[in-house]
């Protein structure tokens, strides 16, 4: 009986500690508005492993494992959303910058032609 209680305490402590490991990355990505350095492969691996671990935890009725991986799944979805959003925003920025540089080059050529 005592072993099961300690195992549950350790499980919930591990759940709370590992459920927050993505929060600093989400905060930093949101603060810097930059997600180019995030690996989409890593995010995909975390995504699919959290799904598999959740299924495993539900099958064996392990609540700490299931809660942990559901929270990791939700945080990972948020991080994937930030990655997609800021990648699209960066590409739009590059297009605008290219147009500006192109127009700037044209005006310099016009000035040089005069």
Shape annotation: rod-shaped
Strand and helix order:
HHHH
**Mean of residue pLDDT?**
87
* Total count of helical runs of at least 4 residues: 4
Helix content: over 70%
Question: What is the count of distinct domains?
Answer: 1
Strand content: under 5%
CATH architecture: Up-down Bundle
| Spatial extent as radius of gyration | 23 Å
Number of strands: 0
Q: Termini distance? A: 92 Å
Level-1 CATH class name: Mainly Alpha
Kindly identify the CATH topology. Monooxygenase
Write the layout of secondary structure elements.
Elements: H1 2-18, H2 23-32, H3 40-59, H4 63-113
Helix pairs in contact: 1-4, 2-4, 3-4
Can you give a write-up of this model?
The protein has helices spanning 2-18, 23-32, 40-59, 63-113. It is built from four helices and no strands. By secondary structure, the chain is an all-alpha fold. It has a single domain (2-113), classed as Monooxygenase (Up-down Bundle). 86% of the residues lie in helices and 0% in strands. The model has no long low-confidence stretch (mean pLDDT 87). The radius of gyration is 23 Å and the shape is rod-shaped.
């Amino acid at each position: 009986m005592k072993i099961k209680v300690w195992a549950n305490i350790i499980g919930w402590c591990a759940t709370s500690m590992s459920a927050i490991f993505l929060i600093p990355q989400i905060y930093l990505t949101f603060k810097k508005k930059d997600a180019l350095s995030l690996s989409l492969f890593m995010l995909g691996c975390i995504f699919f492993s959290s799904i598999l671990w959740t299924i495993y935890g539900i099958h064996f009725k392990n609540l700490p494992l299931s809660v942990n991986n559901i929270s990791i799944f939700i945080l990972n979805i948020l991080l994937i959303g930030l990655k997609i959003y800021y990648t699209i925003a960066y590409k739009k920025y590059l297009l605008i910058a290219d147009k500006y540089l192109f127009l700037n080059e044209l005006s310099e050529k016009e000035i040089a032609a005069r």
